[in-house]
Amino acid sequence: MKYKQDELRFYFEKNPRQLEAVRHIYNGCTEKEAAEKMNVSEDTVTTHLSLARNVLGVNNSWEAGRHCEIFGLISYNNLPSAQPSDALKNYCENERQKVKNKEWKKEKRKKGWE
Fold this sequence. Notes:
114 residues, Arc Repressor Mutant, subunit A, 70% helix
């Protein structure tokens, strides 16, 4: 993690939409559903999530939500259950696959296969 709890609180006070996007994903919404709830485009939600993950130093949005919960930025009472939904599991798996694909492309370029 890159920042201390107080720094994260200050960051998300200045960027509340990023925290809102993380909260929606952590509650089991897809990016499309989060975009509808936030009245923004899916690309905007993707950007918010990416920035939040970068600040928190995590690899996926569920981890970002978990960190925010641990640091008291998202209340546990807002969550329907401690288990991630199927939609969230699928989202995280897609994120992992994107990372693997990027790493594979880099490896192919390095070895001159591409």
